[in-house]
Amino acid sequence: MATESPPQRGYLSQKAYRFLAALVFRDFRFLAIASLSSGSGAWALIVARGAWVFSIPELHATWGLWVGLITFAAMSPRFFATPFIGYLADKVTRKTLLQWVYALQLVQASVMAVLVMLGVDNPWYVVGLAVINGTLRATQQTAAQSLTPNLVDRERLPNAVALNEAMQQGSRAVGPAILLAVSVLVGAGAVFQSGGVSFSLQNLALTIGTSAVIFWACAVFYLVALIAALSIRTVSSGVIDRNRSFWSNTAAGFVYSYTTPLIFGIILMALAHCVLVMSFESMLPPLALEKLSADGVTFDQNDVYALMTALGIGALISSIFVGGIVSHLTRGRVFLLLGFTSSLTPIGLGLSSQTGISMIAAVLMGLGTSGFMTITHTVIHSVVPDEIRGRVASVYSMHVGGSMAFANLLYGALADHWQAGMIMAVSGAAFTLVVVGTLVGSGFWRGIFFRGEARPVAAASPAGAD
Questions:
Q1: N or C: which end of the chain has fewer CB within 10 A?
Q2: Phi and psi (nearest 5°) for 200?
């Protein structure tokens, strides 16, 4: 008897299925919403805190240093706390960990908004809240990355990892874009009416302050993330050897990462990439002043939001595109292409003197850097065993986040003495040398770029087992 052939998808349906395949799973959809919303809150806080510092005249002489210090405070927990976070992500129920994290993020964002409402302008309070925000964000990222493979089937795992990363990276556009919209509406005196009741953002801003409105908007992102996380049903955790100590179980993640050549190589490349071309957050305010200000002197927080939104648009596009790549060979070649894109676009942005070119360069820079990092995430989470994934994810996060924290502190301090654009151009040139060096001098990397050798490998003593 003849079997009925499956229904044929149209061209657009085929493309949607290829690039968004993992969204057919209910719990993954809620995780994606939570990741997008919490990521939007995190990036919105980064740019809002930077703009807040630049709004305080008393800090004028050390604007860059303070932005760098606050950004360092927000990112450094990924270096100091991730060994403990990875252990937690494998020991406790991952969805429960996510729910607690989002609830605490909502609290810290609300505290920041209240402090701004009260007119507190001591940046050390912001540094303290940034540490809390960074610790919770590091926990959320590790838990979400560890949970993702439990929500989809093996076939669609690379797409799920890439989409989760797309939500994280693409949220660079969503969060700052919404802040930009709120800021513009406040400035325009927009009035919303419904059922005879009117509401003016400008009146609200006059009551509690424009900056407070911005920070309350950041808190709303975490509220949405919490609601989405509470809808996840899948229960999963890693495997902890109860006969071993905390330190021994934690060390298993480092042993696996450092003794598996593919994982170790990817971590080193991601580290170089993050130090040289992704640690730009502390330079966003001075960069916006150089590239987008009409006179190069007057600072406008909307310019910061617009610049981060442009970076986020490119990030979202490339992350979704990478999620649709199913061939190891194609992924390797795109990895190389994105490496060059990541290195050359900061040079273009740093040296540009026209607003339009700067915005285009920012979109392309977001496309290159985020696509590159999405591939590193996809490789790691596709090959690491589930029982140790949380700890390996924490090792990866420690290297990536820690390097970005220290680089942001350095770049922020340098921006008080040199042009931010020139710093960015020099660091982009340095990463160009890294990419060319691996291409010319490393057979390992040529195998990944041209033969698609970044694929599953045998485990190296997972879960701390002998």
A1: N
A2: -115, 125
